[in-house]
Write a structure and sequence with these properties.
A hairpin with a 2-residue loop joins strand 3 and strand 4. This protein has two helices and eight strands. 18% of the residues lie in helices and 44% in strands. It is of the alpha/beta class. It is globular and about 45 Å long. The strands form two sheets. It has a four-stranded mixed sheet with strand order 1-4-3-2, with helices on one face. The protein has a four-stranded mixed sheet with strand order 5-8-7-6, with helices on one face.
């Protein structure tokens, strides 16, 4: 049996803040919402779900964002301009990078809770 991933859940402290971040900067549409607790955004074939962390983790800086996951967004063109726009909006962005033999221009950034995302543009 072959399985597929349809939804990725991030446990977050502030659902509304991250919902607004991913809507504003990446154009993702909300397809489900329980205000303050749950939001699902359509991100291509995958849904990005934002789930409020449990009571013991609320109010602790970094509790929700200690993850080894990275969200990777495909950017068809204009990555340098998008990166500049994000920096202008005070989004923490790292330098652009390339790897030999890998035909992509990339840069990483962090959402307001410290979750790492990557913007990836094919050559």
């Amino acid at each position: 049996m072959k399985l597929s991933i349809t939804r990725l859940i991030l446990y977050v402290r502030d659902v509304a803040l991250l919902e607004a971040f991913y809507q504003s900067h990446f154009g993702l549409d909300v397809i489900e919402r329980i205000p303050g607790e749950w939001a699902v955004l359509k991100a291509g074939a995958l849904e990005l779900a934002l789930h409020r962390v449990g009571e013991p983790f609320r109010g602790h800086a970094g509790a929700a964002s200690q993850s080894n996951a990275k969200l990777v967004f495909h950017v068809p063109a204009g990555l340098p301009d998008l990166r500049a726009k994000l920096i202008d909006a005070n989004v923490r962005m790292r330098e652009m990078k390339r790897y030999d033999g890998f035909p992509y221009l990339m840069c990483d950034g962090c959402d307001p809770e410290g979750n790492v995302f990557q913007l990836c543009q094919p050559d």
